[in-house]
Amino acid sequence: MAFTIAIDGPAAAGKGTIGRALAAHFGFAHLDTGLLYRATGRRTLDGIDPVEAARTLRADDLDADDLRTPEVSQAASRVAAIPEVRQALLDFQRAFARRAGGAVLDGRDIGTVICPEAEVKLFVTACDAERARRRHKEMRGGGHDVTLEEVEEDLRQRDARDSARAEAPLKPADDALRLDTSEMSIDEAVAAAVAAVERAR
Ligand code: C5P
C-alpha cells in the first residue's frame, strides 16, 4: 500500500535528517529530491543545457561526490527555476512517492506539487543563524573548506530564489504541519515527526 510522507522547507532546516530517520523508522524508501536538482545543476557546469541535463539524468549522476559544494547548490537553484527542468523530473518523483511500501520525499514542492495527496505533510523550518551553523558544520565535516559567511550567503540567495520563482515556489501546503527545529535536538525533531506520522496512520 502506498503511503507518502512529504517534507518541505528551506535549505538546511533538517529535512534530510528527519526524512532519513522517518524512512528508517517506518521501513519506507527515502528520496532527497534536492539531489535531482543538484545533479542537473552539476551537469550544466560542464556546459550541458539545463533541460537536456534534466531529461538525460542517470542514476549514477546522483552519486557524483561534489554535489554539496556552494557552486553546485547555486547551479541547482538556478536550474530549479526553469519549468521544463521541473517537468522533466516530475514523473520520476511521482512514481517514487506512490511506490508500494511507503515513501518519504524531501524537497521544496513535495506537498504542494509533486504529491498533494500525501498522507503526511511536514514543513520543516529553523531560524537563519541555526541553519547556517548546521550546514557549515556539516560541510566542514565533509571536508569542504567554506566559511560561515559563505554558507549564510548561499542559503540566503537560494531561499530567496526558491521562494520567489513562479513555478513550484517554496511554500507550505495549506495542510502541512509546521515543525520549527531551531531549538530542537535531532532526537526531539525526529520524535515530533514520528508522532505526526503515527497520528496519520
Ligand atoms: O534540498 P537541497 O538544498 O539539496 O536542494 C538544492 C536546490 O534544489 C534548492 O535550493 C532548490 O532550488 C532545488 N529544489 C527544488 N525542489 C525540490 C528540491 C530541491 O527546487 N523539490
TrEMBL record:
It catalyses: CMP + ATP = CDP + ADP; dCMP + ATP = dCDP + ADP. It is an enzyme of class 2 (transferase). InterPro entries: Cytidylate_kin (IPR003136), Cytidylate_kinase_dom (IPR011994), P-loop_NTPase (IPR027417). GO terms for molecular function: kinase activity. Residues 5-51, 64-198 form the Cytidylate kinase domain. It holds the Pfam family Cytidylate_kin. Its EC number is 2.7.4.25. Residues 154-165 have a biased composition (Basic and acidic residues). ATP binds at residues 9-17. It is found in: Cytoplasm. Belongs to the cytidylate kinase family. Type 1 subfamily. This is Cytidylate kinase. The gene is cmk.
